[in-house]
């Protein structure tokens, strides 16, 4: 078997496995049950698996359009690039979407801002357009509100007012809801029939809505204008090396500050018993170490990285003391760590620093506007 055939089999095999795992996960979200049997829960079967394609096909279509947007633009710029590598991941115990995404490997050195811009912007914009189509379809084809009783027959005793009662006594993490962003709110408010829009904790059962929302979420992460994310490529090309070298760390610091805001509050320490105080203090120390590792590549000088870390922590504590009701979203902390420690905050330098033409500049700022429209400060609601 020649290397090219092996390569095609690898990419195709990963795609097929990912199609299966996203279908499994989609069915689990849709029906609120699992394929693996657990005591007291009827496992899902073949019919539910087939229904799961309503999630996996639109979601993987958006992901595929995104990656091939990068691929074909790279080819047009004569940059060698691989086909997409899909990353399957199905936990079997819920709380997964069946994949960690997909990526392409660029096999050439990119020597110009323009090429970085073209390759970086093509993926998220292409996927974004398809995400709009999926969301439009999902919100214009919502089933009657009574549909939720087929998933949760126990809600029937409350009727359509179930939202006032169903989530009061759930264990922590017992319900997962979709947050909000400007674009998602537009679809809920102006596109959908308001009488059919489900409670935020029940939107996970609507496959097209879930696929579209996740597409917006991942588009916003990709368009964060930091490092070698797509948004980083775009902003680097728009403003150049010199300005990006200070804008990116400022944005990263702000992102980390928001993510960890409210995780530890001075007022919480004051009401703890001695044993609980030292336990919380240990957790706080681990948080500081975690944050320092995330900031370790913001400067070549470790002392500078430490000072930035401590400044962020002190600022978070001070703001939490002044406004204890203000909280960030701790779910972003893992992404902060991956971005700061592995993906990098800064952007590779390019030989050619030519400015972008007017059309690309307009398109670049539109892409950053898309980031604003898709970004959710609290993307997922956990009861």
Automatic annotation (TrEMBL):
It comes from the Bacteria. The chain crosses the membrane at residues 85-104, 116-139, 204-224, 244-264, 276-296, 303-322, 328-346, 362-381. CDD domains: S2P-M50_like_2 (cd06160). Its cofactor is Zn(2+). GO terms for biological process: proteolysis. This is Site-2 protease family protein. Keywords: Hydrolase, Membrane, Protease, Transit peptide, Transmembrane, Transmembrane helix. It is found in: Membrane. Belongs to the peptidase M50B family. Residues 55-241 form the Peptidase M50 domain. Its main location: membrane. The keyword Disulfide bond does not apply.
């Amino acid at each position: 078997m020649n290397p090219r055939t092996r390569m095609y089999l690898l990419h195709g095999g990963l795609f097929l496995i990912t199609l299966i795992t996203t279908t499994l996960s989609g069915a689990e979200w849709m029906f609120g049950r699992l394929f693996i049997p657990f005591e007291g829960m009827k496992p899902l079967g073949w019919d539910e698996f087939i229904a799961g394609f309503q999630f996996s096909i639109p979601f993987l279509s958006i992901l595929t359009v995104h990656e091939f947007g990068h691929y074909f633009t790279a080819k047009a710029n004569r940059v060698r690039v691989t086909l997409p590598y899909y990353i399957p991941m199905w936990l079997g115990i819920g709380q997964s979407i069946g994949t960690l995404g997909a990526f392409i490997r660029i096999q050439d050195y990119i020597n110009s801002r323009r090429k970085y811009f073209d390759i970086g912007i093509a993926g998220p914009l292409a996927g974004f357009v398809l995400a709009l189509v999926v969301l439009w379809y999902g919100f214009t084809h919502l089933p009657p509100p009574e549909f939720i009783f087929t998933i949760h027959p126990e809600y029937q005793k409350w009727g359509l007012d179930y939202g006032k009662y169903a989530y009061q006594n759930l264990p922590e993490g017992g319900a997962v809801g979709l947050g909000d962003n400007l674009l998602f709110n537009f679809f809920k408010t102006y596109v959908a029939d308001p009488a059919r829009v489900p409670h935020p904790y029940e939107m996970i059962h609507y496959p097209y809505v879930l696929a579209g929302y996740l597409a917006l979420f991942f588009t916003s992460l990709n368009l964060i204008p930091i490092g070698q994310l797509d948004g980083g490529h775009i902003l680097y090309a728009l403003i150049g090396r010199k300005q990006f070298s200070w804008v990116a760390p400022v944005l990263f610091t702000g992102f980390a500050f928001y993510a960890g805001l409210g995780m530890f509050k001075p007022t919480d320490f004051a009401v703890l018993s001695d044993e609980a105080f030292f336990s919380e203090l240990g957790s706080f120390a681990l948080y500081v170490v975690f944050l320092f590792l995330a900031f370790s590549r913001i400067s070549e000088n470790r002392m500078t990285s430490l000072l930035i870390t401590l400044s962020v922590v002190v600022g978070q504590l001070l703001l939490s003391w002044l406004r204890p009701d203000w909280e960030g979203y701790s779910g972003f902390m893992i992404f902060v760590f991956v971005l700061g420690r592995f993906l990098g905050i800064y952007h590779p330098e390019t030989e050619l620093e030519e400015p972008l033409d007017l059309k690309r500049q307009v398109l670049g700022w539109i892409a950053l506007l898309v980031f604003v429209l898709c970004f959710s400060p609290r993307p997922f609601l956990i009861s």
